[in-house]
Amino acid sequence: GTHCELRGATRVYPGSAGRPALHALGPIDLELEAGRFYAVVGPSGCGKSTLLELLAGLASPSEGEVFINGQPIEGNVADGVGVVFQDDASFPWLTVWDNIAFGLRQKGVSENIISEKVKGATKLMGLTGFESAYPAQLSGGMRQRVCIARTLMMEPKLILLDEPFGALDQQTRLLMGDELLNLWRETGATVLLITHALDEAAMLADVVCVMSARPGVLLDVVETGWPRD
Ligand code: ADP
Ligand code: ADP
């Protein structure tokens, strides 16, 4: 079934201090089906991040509507949505373990349960043995895995990733792509990956959404036809 949907969604940044208003996105009509892996590609500035912000509830559409599980998003990160950004967003003053545990501790989940889940997430993301390390002691790829593990801990049904491998070297990017695929298979989550790398989109995604230059509209939605079982 449909997991989330954009209906005629646009995003316009109002002008200020002599700058004109900027039409950043849309109108976009897009339906994401539950459990599929989507990639969004398009030139820099076409509105990919803006699209993700709308789905995450980090920004509201200027016109149109955004739905998750049939409910309109009310301008905050919806339950069950996890976001991973390009920039390393780990907390440098916390260990890998504490970074990954952070979200559940905020929610007041008991340490026993957190411990089990952190173990699971570190294993899945290949971080076992590095629990006591600090982010500065890790490679960029490992730090990015910490960020993904931290998002996974919240058991999101919808995982939104904005250029998560953009800062990584080619080899690490390929490895991380494989890990993302494994993760998708294991969790059954709906995944939406924003990338400017066409090869990454074509190799990983079930469905590739192609956007035009600003203001971004969908040019095409292409099924890659990968057998996934
Ligand atoms: P992409 O992710 O495809 O590079 P973005 O969604 O980041 O594109 O940006 C789309 C357009 O909106 C760009 O022209 C960008 O400069 C503009 N934009 C993004 N955020 C803001 C903002 N906070 N204020 C004004 N313009 C913005
Ligand atoms: P805190 O005093 O912050 O509650 P703990 O006493 O639980 O921390 O653990 C101290 C440090 O040991 C943590 O910061 C974490 O990095 C690490 N740690 C905790 N549990 C584990 C574990 N099961 N495996 C590996 N490292 C752990």
Automatic annotation (TrEMBL):
EC primary class: hydrolase
Residue ranges constituting the ABC transporter domain according to the UniProt record: 6-229
The keyword Mitochondrion appears for this protein: no
Keyword field contains Iron: no
Domain of life: Bacteria
UniProt keyword list: ATP-binding, Hydrolase, Nucleotide-binding, Transport
E.C. number: 3.6.3.36
GO MF entry, a single one: ATP hydrolysis activity
Family label: Belongs to the ABC transporter superfamily.
Protein name, as recorded: Taurine transporter ATP-binding subunit
